[in-house]
């Protein structure tokens, strides 16, 4: 069972990092599930329950950053609720057109949302740019959380593997 959980943890680390780049996938949460998978192994160098809880909370905040940061940046750059909702809708529509849709979807969605809300074109473009900046910052925050969690789990796995795990597999 330990081998299965370690392989699952490695897959979840990879999915977590991919999920930080692909909008709509809960990257930090997937990375945290790698911690959870490793937590239930028979490894002697396991995570503490406190570590598990703290990083679970951080993963949830990382996940929320995907929605909060672009919305806050849109508002900071003068966007309306229409621009915020347009950016969110544009993000999900952009998923259908990778890789450019992942970047252009939120940007164009925020611009269209603000135009529909009655903003002038230059003001709408400014708030769309804010949404794009927020999207980039949110993605970076999510990636940092996922990479730190992934590094911690990978380190535990390597230390545990040095104790004979790979000699048993191979």
Would you give an account of this structure?
With 170 residues, the protein is mostly helical. It has one domain. The chain is built from 6 helices and no strands. It has helices at 2-21, 27-39, 49-76, 81-94, 100-116, 121-169. Helix 1 runs antiparallel to helix 2 (27-39). The mean pLDDT is 87.
Largest sheet: none
Radius of gyration: 20 Å
- Residue stretches low in confidence (pLDDT < 50, at least 5 long) are none
Tally of helical runs: 6
Strand residue content? under 5%
Q: How far is it from the N-terminal to the C-terminal residue, by CA?
A: 16 Å
Order of helices and strands: HHHHHH
* Overall shape: elongated
* Proportion of residues in helical segments: over 70%
Number of domains: 1
Secondary-structure content class = mainly alpha
Mean pLDDT: 87
How many extended strands? 0
Provide keyphrases for this structure:
mainly alpha, 170 residues, single chain, elongated, 6 helices
Blueprint (SSEs and pairs):
Elements (H helix, E strand, L loop, with lengths): L1 H20 L5 H13 L9 H28 L4 H14 L5 H17 L4 H49 L1
Helix pairs in contact: 1-2, 1-6, 2-3, 2-6, 3-4, 3-6, 4-5, 5-6
Quick rundown:
Helices cover 83% and strands 0% of the residues.
């Amino acid at each position: 069972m330990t081998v299965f959980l370690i392989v699952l943890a490695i897959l979840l680390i990879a999915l977590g990092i991919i999920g930080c780049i692909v909008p709509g996938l809960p990257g930090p949460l997937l990375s945290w599930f790698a911690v959870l998978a490793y937590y239930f192994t028979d490894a002697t160098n396991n995570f503490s329950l406190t570590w598990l809880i703290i990083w679970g909370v951080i993963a949830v905040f990382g996940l929320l950053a995907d929605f909060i940061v672009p919305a806050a940046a849109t508002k900071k750059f003068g966007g309306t609720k229409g621009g915020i909702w347009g950016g969110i809708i544009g993000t999900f529509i952009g998923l259908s057109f990778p890789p450019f849709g992942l970047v252009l979807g939120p940007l164009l969605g925020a611009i269209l949302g603000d135009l529909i809300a009655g903003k002038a074109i230059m003001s709408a473009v400014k708030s769309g740019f804010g949404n794009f900046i927020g999207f980039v910052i949110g993605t970076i925050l999510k990636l940092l959380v996922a990479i730190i969690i992934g590094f911690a789990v990978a380190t535990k796995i390597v230390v545990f593997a040095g104790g004979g795990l790979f000699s048993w597999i191979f």
